C-alpha cells in the first residue's frame, strides 16, 4: 500500500500556531502537513533532567497538540540526534516538502545545512522563512553592504526600514488549519523524554507596564518588566505583533527589541563572538580567573548586596532584572577580573530566556570587549547602583533573607578593584 504524500512543518523557536510564517506557507503546499517537534539530544544531553526550559517547551508543544486534536490532527514528537531523526522520518513517510523558520545561531545553521543536504539528496524540497526577527542577516547594513557594529546607526536604519513597511505583515492561519494531516500520533510524557517537571516556572508575559517603561525599568523592586524574554526566545509570541504594537506604545521598549536584532545580526556576521572577544585588541588582558572567587559570585556570596541578590534571584527563579544583570556582569569582569566567558556560560545554564546572541552581546558589553561596548574604564560601583535603584533595599531583602542580621563584608574593596581593573586592561590591550 503506497504512503500518503505529505509536507512537514518543523517547530523550533516558534512554538505557536498563530502568526507563524513557515507554518503559513506549509499549510498552503499541495500536501497535508504533519507538524513535528524534535527534542534534540545534542542540546538535551548537556542539561539537568529538571531543566525549566525543557519543561516550558514541553508545556507549549502540549498546548499546540491540544489545539491540533480539535482539528483531528496532532504533533509528531521525536527525540534523538536531529539528522538521525530525519533519516528515520524519510523511511516512514513520503515527504515531499519540508518547511521551517530560520535560526541564526552557529549550531543551528550547521544543523540546518546538514539537513538541507540530506533532503536535497532525496529530492525533497526545503523551504525556510524569516520568523523570529523583523529584519534578518543582511537586511540592515551600511551603504557599503557591511554590517553595523554600533547600535545607534543600526537602530536608525532599522527604524527607517520598518517605517517604510509598517505595520509588518501578520499572518492569519485560521482558514488554513483544514490542511493539517489528519492523524493521532502518540504524545510522550515528559518522563519518556528523559526529564521531569521543573519547580522553576516561566511567568506569563505582561504588557500593562509598557506605557511607563522608561520610568520603571531600572528599579528591580518595582517588578514592572514585561517578562517577555523567554516567550520571545521560544517563539510563544509573535515578534511582528509585538513590534507593531510597541511602535505605537513606547519608544524605549521598542529600542530594546531593536537591541535584540542588533545582537542577532552581530552573531550572524561575526560568529566568532560566541566565545571570542569582538575586539581582538582585548585578547591580551591577563584575567585572574580565580575559581573560588567565581564560586562565590555564582552563589551570591560576594558581600555586595545588589550583586548577591541578583545571583540568588537567578539561581532560584531563572530570572534576573536587567539593571541587576549589568551590575553582576560588571562585577565579575571588572572587580574579580574573571573573563566574560565564565559568566556567559553560567547565565546560559540558568537563564530561562537564554538567547546566545543577546547573552554574548551583553556580556561583552559589560566586559568592554564587544562591539559598541561600555568603555573598559567604566566600572559599576555596586553600592552606588544599590542606592540609585534599590535605595530602600526592598529588592535586596527579598533575595537576601539574612541581610538585616549582619551581612558579610565585601570580598573585594571597590576602589582597589577599580584601579586594578583599569590598570590590567590598560596593560593588556594590544595597540
What does this protein look like?
- The protein is an alpha/beta fold.
- The chain has three domains: 1-131, 3-Layer(aba) Sandwich (Rossmann fold); 133-169 and 206-269, Serine Threonine Protein Phosphatase 5, Tetratricopeptide repeat (Alpha Horseshoe); 274-428, DNA Cyclobutane Dipyrimidine Photolyase, subunit A, domain 3, CATH 1.10.579.
- The chain is 46% helix and 8% strand.
- It has 18 helices and five strands.
- It has helices at 21-26, 41-44, 52-69, 82-92, 106-121, 151-165, 213-216, 229-234, 239-249, 251-269, 291-299, 305-317, 322-335, 340-350, 356-367, 382-389, 394-399, 414-428; strands at residues 5-11, 33-40, 76-80, 94-101, 125-129.
- The protein has a five-stranded parallel β-sheet.
- Helix 1 links the parallel strand 1 and strand 2 (33-40).
- Helix 10 packs across helix 15.
- The chain is globular, with a radius of gyration of 23 Å.
- The model has no long low-confidence stretch (mean pLDDT 96).
Amino acid at each position: 500500500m503506497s504512503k500518503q504524500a505529505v509536507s512537514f512543518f518543523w517547530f523550533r523557536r516558534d512554538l505557536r500556531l498563530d502568526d507563524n510564517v513557515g507554518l503559513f506557507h506549509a499549510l498552503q503546499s499541495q500536501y497535508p502537513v504533519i507538524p513535528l517537534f524534535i527534542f534534540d539530544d545534542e542540546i538535551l544531553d548537556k542539561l539537568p533532567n529538571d531543566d525549566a526550559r525543557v519543561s516550558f517547551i514541553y508545556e507549549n508543544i502540549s498546548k499546540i497538540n491540544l489545539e491540533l486534536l480539535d482539528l483531528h490532527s496532532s504533533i509528531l514528537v521525536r527525540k534523538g540526534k536531529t539528522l538521525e531523526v530525519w533519516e528515520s522520518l524519510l523511511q516512514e513517510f513520503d515527504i515531499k516538502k519540508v518547511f521551517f523558520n530560520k535560526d541564526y545561531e552557529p549550531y543551528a545553521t550547521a544543523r540546518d545545512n546538514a539537513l538541507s543536504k540530506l533532503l536535497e539528496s532525496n529530492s525533497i524540497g526545503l523551504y525556510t522563512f524569516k520568523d523570529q526577527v523583523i529584519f534578518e542577516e543582511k537586511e540592515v547594513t551600511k551603504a557599503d553592504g557591511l554590517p553595523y557594529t554600533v547600535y545607534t546607526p543600526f537602530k536608525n536604519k532599522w527604524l527607517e526600514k520598518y517605517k517604510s513597511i509598517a505595520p509588518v505583515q501578520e499572518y492569519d492561519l485560521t482558514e488554513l488549519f483544514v490542511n493539517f494531516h489528519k492523524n493521532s500520533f502518540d504524545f510522550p510524557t515528559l518522563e519518556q523524554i528523559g526529564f521531569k517537571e521543573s519547580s522553576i516556572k516561566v511567568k506569563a508575559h505582561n504588557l500593562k507596564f509598557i506605557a511607563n517603561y522608561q520610568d520603571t525599568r531600572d528599579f528591580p523592586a518595582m517588578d514592572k518588566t514585561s517578562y517577555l524574554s523567554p516567550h520571545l526566545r521560544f517563539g510563544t509570541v509573535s515578534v511582528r505583533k509585538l513590534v507593531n504594537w510597541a511602535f505605537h506604545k513606547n519608544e524605549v521598549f521598542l529600542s530594546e527589541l531593536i537591541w535584540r536584532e542588533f545582537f542577532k545580526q552581530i552573531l550572524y556576521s561575526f560568529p566568532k563572538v560566541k566565545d571570542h572577544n569582538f575586539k581582538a585588541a582585548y585578547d591580551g588582558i591577563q584575567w585572574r580567573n580565580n575559581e573560588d572567587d567565581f564560586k562565590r559570585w555564582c552563589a551570591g556570596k560576594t558581600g555586595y548586596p545588589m550583586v548577591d541578590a541578583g545571583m540568588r534571584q537567578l539561581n532560584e527563579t531563572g530570572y534576573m532584572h536587567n539593571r541587576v544583570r549589568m551590575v553582576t556582569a560588571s562585577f565579575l569582569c571588572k572587580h574579580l577580573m574573571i573573563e566574560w566567558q565564565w559568566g556567559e556560560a553560567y547565565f546560559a545554564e540558568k537563564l530561562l530566556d537564554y538567547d546566545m546572541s543577546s547573552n554574548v552581546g551583553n556580556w561583552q558589553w559589560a566586559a568592554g570587549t564587544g562591539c559598541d561596548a561600555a568603555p573598559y574604564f567604566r566600572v559599576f560601583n555596586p553600592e552606588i547602583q544599590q542606592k540609585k535603584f534599590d535605595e530602600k533595599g526592598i529588592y535586596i531583602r527579598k533575595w537576601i533573607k539574612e541581610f538585616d542580621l549582619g551581612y558579610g563584608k565585601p570580598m573585594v574593596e571597590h576602589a582597589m578593584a577599580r584601579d586594578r581593573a583599569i590598570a590590567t586592561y590598560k596593560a593588556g590591550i594590544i595597540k
